[in-house]
Amino acid sequence: MSGSTEGSNMADKPVLGFIGLGVMGSRMCANLIRRSDANVVVYDPVAEAADAAAVLGARKCGDAAEVARIAEIVFLSLPSIREVETVCADLAGAPDRPRIIVDMSTSDVGRTRALAARLKDRGVALVDAPVARLRQAAEDGTLLITVGADEPLFAELKPFLSCMGSDVVHAGGTGNGQVMKILNNMVLFLNMNALAEALTIGRAAGVDGALLFETLALGSADSFALRRTATATMIPDEFPVRAFPTNYAIKDLALALQLARDEGIDVPAASQTMDLLERTRDAGYGENYYPAMIKLVDGRG
Questions:
Q1: Is residue 3 part of a domain?
Q2: Catalytic residue check, 181
Q3: Total domain count for the chain?
Q4: Are 162 and 203 within one domain?
Q5: How far apart are CA 297 and CA 116, in angstroms?
Q6: In a domain, 208, yes or no
Q7: Are residues 18 and 163 in the same domain?
Q8: Among the options 120, 158, 181, 295, which is catalytic?
Q9: What's the angle, vertex CA 162, arms to CA 158 and CA 165, rounded to 5?
Q10: What is the extent of the structural domain holding 49?
Q11: Which end of the chain has fewer beta carbons closer than 10 Å to its terminal beta carbon, N or C?
């Protein structure tokens, strides 16, 4: 069991690890440092990312094994299940290993459950706790976090997760947090597809696009996607590259389609949206904010 102390400054508080300090992870980790009653150790292969966390009070580690040696609970924010599996193998294979690994990435459900079973054999509990909402929510600590864990683990982790999210939902057992997150994103992408089509039809029929969206927001078509994402991107026709790109949307929707296949469920609407996203990528908008899909809907792609 890890969680060993190194000096009195580590002895009187819990020690948490955080691996993966990208766009979301760096902000989540910053809130964990500021708001938790814990010491935080971090690792990221990008030295500047780890340096930024150190400025806030974290201790930098040289690799995942060093994090495992010091921290009893380790949080991950990584690009995909492939990186999660690799890092978890490093953590569980270290001479000292954490008691709990919390995967806050968006990961494949089946592989998450299989990974949890492998880690359990090594005496390590895997909790899936993926996050939803935008970058600003990560900055503000107002993410939605859906957690797959048993009740005692959820109760233990909730105070730390609440440093990063304003809505921390116990989704059930292992993998259920990922199910919730994946389906949240699936519905979001389908909603954006519908809004792109509505805007294209409305403009072709002579209606002002901004007025259309303002009016839809007053009725039963209202949604977060309409009021925030679609209005901010589709109306000004701006799809920046340093936002949630089409390639990421494809990755997340692929997880939903895989889950549907695993459960034997036909999902034609989600499949159509995947086709639209893939055509958006192939048209050269893979790194642009995914609402760029409207360019394919209105024929500009």
A1: no
A2: yes
A3: 2
A4: no
A5: 41
A6: yes
A7: yes
A8: 181
A9: 125
A10: 8-173
A11: N
DSSP 285: I
Regions of the chain short of the pLDDT cut 50: 1, 3-8
18 and 137 both lie in a single domain: yes
Q: Which pLDDT score is estimated for 8?
A: 41
**Cα(135)–Cα(143) distance, integer angstroms:** 9
pLDDT at 225: 95
Both tokens of 170, joined, read 């116990």
pTM: 0.92
Residue where a domain terminates, one of 132, 153, 173 = 173
Which letter does DSSP use for residue 239 in this model?
A: -
Render pLDDT for 226-240 as a digit per residue (tens, 0 to 9): 999 999 999 999 999
Cα(218)–Cα(256) distance, rounded to whole angstroms?
30
Same structural domain for residues 169 and 184? no
Domain boundary among 114, 141, 173: 173
pLDDT of residue 12: 76
- The answer as to whether 253 is a domain residue is yes
Pairing mode, if any, of strands 15-19 and 73-76?
Answer: parallel
Q: Residue 54 and residue 56: Cα distance in Å, rounded?
A: 5
Q: Residue 10 has what pLDDT?
A: 59
